[in-house]
Design brief:
The chain is of the alpha+beta class and 134 residues long. Strands 1, 2, 3, 4 and 5 form a 5-stranded antiparallel sheet that branches. A hairpin with a 6-residue loop joins β3 and β4. Helices cover 39% and strands 28% of the residues.
């Protein structure tokens, strides 16, 4: 027969297993959000992984301090250097994503022409100047 102490230990193990199961789901959601963010920023997520760094109180978008899981990840732009990033998760809701400063590739120039700003301003008058000329 189970004593009250044995029942408490069983319930404690069940609660720990439920917490770990939920934490795994939150980690998977964080990984999904980081993948989306890296694709949008045109950087490569390294190791396809996020790792729990700490639990801490962080301000959410509404300015309230809430307990958050902070996950860390690494990304690269050039394939040579690793840069760090982090994401805050408030339960199942993703918070802000922070990324270390990184070099970015400049978009290619269309035709290589140099635009002289004075000539451009003369050919594109301000709206107020156009109204006065009419």
């Amino acid at each position: 027969m189970l004593s009250l102490g044995d029942l408490f230990i069983v319930l404690l193990f069940i609660a720990a297993a439920a917490w770990l199961w939920r934490a795994h789901g939150i980690r998977e959601r964080a990984l999904e959000r980081v993948k989306q963010h890296c694709a949008r920023e045109e950087v490569e997520l390294l190791d396809e992984n996020v790792a729990l760094r700490r639990l801490r109180f962080v301000r959410d978008a509404g300015g309230r301090r809430r307990l958050a899981r902070v996950y860390g990840f690494e990304f690269t732009v050039t394939g040579e250097q690793r840069h760090a990033g982090s994401i805050c998760m408030f339960g199942q809701q993703a918070g802000h994503i922070e990324m270390d400063p990184y070099p970015f590739r400049a978009p290619p120039v269309d035709d290589g022409r140099v635009i002289q700003i004075d000539a451009w301003r003369r050919s594109h008058p301000k709206p107020e100047e156009r109204r006065q000329a009419d």
